[in-house]
């Protein structure tokens, strides 16, 4: 398995282009199942997760063609016919978001058999809200031997669905199914994350009638069929925030391009409070820190527009060097502070109790061997390594490859001393 080696201490100077959003791209790819015509997605990130979903879609009958267009990488997805409505445990286990094919399969063909995803390292992550939404739309859902058997032989019917919690995945799933339902669907207490707008924009370009995405009330007027479209994947707000934090951690000046600031405003406000200079511009932002001491800040993760849970780990890395004690509360997932013990291996002073971490800033970190159990925890160790004395070796790099496109290339282009060490076999660290 590959590893990433970082020699800390180099200041960052330069430009990093931000890729298309992973968490949007995989739902947009699933939307291609809703029509027999071609969906062309531009600004596509090339990631392990998007490649994986492409393979799953191929098994369901989708033709997937990757190319490089005028504006970078794109993917053309066309499903003339659904040839299989089955997503196995082996597939869904490897990437939870595969579960999102259930709604589109059901909406297009009236049936599907998709494995339940099960828990993951950051939490139990049930899918009860997804299933309740599909049931409200008229699907019959049976659970047997770890599989969801879903049926709606006479099609889905619009319904009023009030989510008890503003779940990102359940809101997206309900949208993906309701666009082809008969009549109107009203989703209340929906997730407001910007990815909802991206999905609604793509579905509308395909002929759907979705309004209100990005607010807590989404109205969907069902249509009988959707058609092909071209849609540009939104910039990755978590990648944007992560590189902003990398620049703040290492010091120097980095311009992030092909992105926006508004969609991570809660995190930028905390960076500014911590003493980092952030300058928004037309197509992104510049992050500057020239030797100024960082101040400890307090925050808790929340649904959009609050502080994103996906940026909690990398922000914790920054706080390990801040002056004072930073209190960080994780409220979205019950087990998402697993990076704290790894940061401690680098010399950080962190005490975790329940969902709260108290980070007392130290004068410096020291490189060590580390590994993490999920994507955002892994990248937080890379960020810490940028400022640690000596060499930090991040193991289990496959987590990073799931969600960061050319991570080491992008950082090295700004002067980071970072390189990938190719592994010579599978599973050597696990
Ligand atoms: C999405 O996960 C993202 N994943 C996550 O990013 C992100 O952290 C999360 O939204 C929150 O922003 C993708 O988009 C693929 P939720 P999702 O449904 O949809 C509970 C990353 O690193 N819940 O909003 O699974 C759930 O257990 C990943 O890129 C239920 O109880 O998030 C959690 O505690 C990690 N029942 C909370 O809601 C349900 O049916 C939020 O989950 C659904 C969710």
Could you characterize the architecture of this molecule?
This protein has helices at 22-31, 48-60, 89-94, 102-109, 128-136, 168-178, 194-205, 237-250, 265-273, 312-319, 339-345, 375-387, 398-403, 407-412, and strands at residues 3-7, 12-17, 38-42, 63-69, 72-78, 86-87, 111-115, 140-144, 147-151, 160-162, 184-188, 209-211, 218-221, 229-232, 252-257, 277-281, 284-289, 299-300, 325-329, 349-353, 356-360, 369-371, 391-395, 417-421. It is an alpha/beta fold and 430 residues long. The model is unreliable at 426-430 (pLDDT under 50). Bound molecules: ligand EPZ. The site of ligand EPZ has 23 residues, from helix 5, helix 6 and helix 12.
Binned, the helix content reads 25-40%
CATH architecture label name of the largest domain: Alpha-beta prism
Q: How many beta-strand elements?
A: 24
CATH class of the largest domain: Alpha Beta
Mean pLDDT: 95
What is the strand content? 25-35%
CATH superfamily of the largest domain: Enolpyruvate transferase domain
The ligands bound in this entry are: ligand EPZ
Distance between the termini: 9 Å
Largest sheet: 4 strands, mixed
Tally of alpha and pi helices: 14
Shape: globular
Topology:
Blueprint: E1 3-7, E2 12-17, H1 22-31, E3 38-42, H2 48-60, E4 63-69, E5 72-78, E6 86-87, H3 89-94, H4 102-109, E7 111-115, H5 128-136, E8 140-144, E9 147-151, E10 160-162, H6 168-178, E11 184-188, H7 194-205, E12 209-211, E13 218-221, E14 229-232, H8 237-250, E15 252-257, H9 265-273, E16 277-281, E17 284-289, E18 299-300, H10 312-319, E19 325-329, H11 339-345, E20 349-353, E21 356-360, E22 369-371, H12 375-387, E23 391-395, H13 398-403, H14 407-412, E24 417-421
Parallel strand pairs: 2-15, 3-14, 6-7, 10-11, 18-19, 22-23
Antiparallel strand pairs: 1-23, 1-24, 3-5, 4-5, 7-9, 8-9, 11-13, 12-13, 15-17, 16-17, 19-21, 20-21
Helix pairs in contact: 1-2, 1-7, 4-6, 5-6, 6-7, 8-10, 8-12, 10-12
The structure holds ligand EPZ.
Ligand EPZ binds at residues 23, 97, 123-130, 165, 167-170, 191, 309-310, 332-333, 375-376, 403.
